[in-house]
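Q: Sequence in, structure out?
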Amino acid sequence: MLKLGEQCIILEMKSKSKNEALEELSTTVHSQCTVVDPTVLLDVLREREQVGSTGVGNGVAIPHAKVPGLDQLLLCFGRSVKGISFDAIDNRPVHLFVQILSPMGMADEYLRTLARISRLFKIESNRKFLLQARTKQEILDFFNAPEI
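A: Exactly. Output:
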């Protein structure tokens, strides 16, 4: 089961660029965990993006990073109906974002979470559902459902 909190869901992102999207996601997740400065979150995400874009294609990006000082795994979901240019591998705009932030010493859970998110977003019907979901509760139920 993935742990996504209601306060970490953005039904319609305001961002228009990759940098703005990373900032909006970081600010939102900071509302759930104030232990780590949002500037630090943004810095580690930008560093990760320099290694290679986390825009995985099919309108999906999974920005992720290990964050010093974090004590729990944090997820943040964002949606942009218009789409955001994110340097995705297929050069298409990104509509669905899942940000994964992990403590430094949680490699196994971090990798399992990243793999599960990747599997979920490979399925076209899942992407369509998340694009059409009207409420945060629908999105929460999707992410927090037990893995089959």
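The first helix runs from residue 18 to 30.
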